[in-house]
Specification:
Chain lengths: 116, 161
């Protein structure tokens, strides 16, 4: 069942992005930025975690979950280390995504010849 | 603001703008949305599959499995970008391949590969974040603001200290 909801919710978030492209004539950078900010705002309101529980990867794979993880890191550190957590915690949870993207992209650039 | 911009144009330029607007082909919005839905959903389905594998065979719990899943998806995306396959998927899927985290990795990998000729430091290192940079900057600022709001309005934000 979780597979079905992952497909539907993940697809729906992508449709939202497509509408930003086609109807509001936004470019990919603006669309992704908007989605990340929306993800952060939703988590701030406590709405993103229920969505993850409901749709699994349908909520964690779209870029909105990046905003959600940034907020999560900050709030976690806020709980454990006090107010300084606002600064120290932001990248705590997103480390995997950002590190992986940087490292793999760098290796690709070193070893792959550009095409086209 | 839009009106101000208009005033600065000559009559001919305004006429041209009107003409260009009329001639612009209508975007097949519904078709694009269906494609975005199918491909985006499929990528999330793949993510769910990878996550289940981590949960059942590597002893992660549901929450911990999210991070390695994202890392694997990013690896797949970078490999497909290197082979030139991801761009072809993107042409078909539009936002369906741009919105998932794989699209984020794709923008970084393709920018890094594209600017390789400008050098490893200024080309690869400097241009890698051309599209991903704004995403990280606004995500971080938004997270900061949300955290501050929690600090101000949620009495439990500090964990009872």
């Amino acid at each position: 069942m979780i597979f079905l909801w992952a497909f539907i919710i993940g697809g729906a978030i992508c449709v939202f992005g497509q509408i930003c492209f086609d109807v509001f004539k936004m470019d990919p950078a603006h669309t992704m930025t908007l989605l990340v900010v929306l993800g952060a705002a939703f988590d701030g309101l406590g709405l993103y975690d229920p969505l993850i529980k409901f749709a699994g990867a349908g909520a964690t794979v779209p870029i909105t979950s990046f905003g959600n993880s940034l907020v999560h890191g900050a709030l976690q550190e806020l709980q454990s280390n006090g107010w300084i957590g606002v600064i120290t915690g932001i990248f705590e949870v997103t480390s995997a995504g950002i590190s992986a993207a940087i490292i793999f992209s760098f290796l690709a650039a070193v070893f792959v010849k550009p095409k086209g | 603001m839009a009106n101000n911009k208009r005033k600065n144009l000559t009559a001919v330029q305004q006429e041209y703008k009107e003409l260009a607007k009329k001639r612009e082909p209508a975007r097949p919005v519904s078709k694009n949305c269906v494609r975005a839905f199918l491909v985006g959903g499929a990528i999330c389905l793949l993510g769910q599959g990878i996550q289940e594998i981590f949960v059942h065979y590597a002893g992660f719990n549901e929450k911990e499995a999210g991070n390695p899943t994202v890392a694997i998806l990013i690896l797949i995306s970078v490999i497909l970008t290197s082979l030139g396959v991801y761009d072809k998927i993107a042409q078909f899927a539009g936002a369906g391949s741009a919105v998932p985290v794989t699209g984020f990795a794709n923008t970084m990998a393709s920018a890094a590969i594209e600017h390789r000729s400008e050098g490893l430091v200024l080309g690869v290192g400097g241009k890698m974040f051309k599209v991903a940079g704004p995403v990280i900057v606004y995500g971080t600022v938004a997270a900061f603001i949300v955290a501050i709001l929690h600090l101000l309005f949620n009495p439990n934000a500090l964990g009872g200290k």
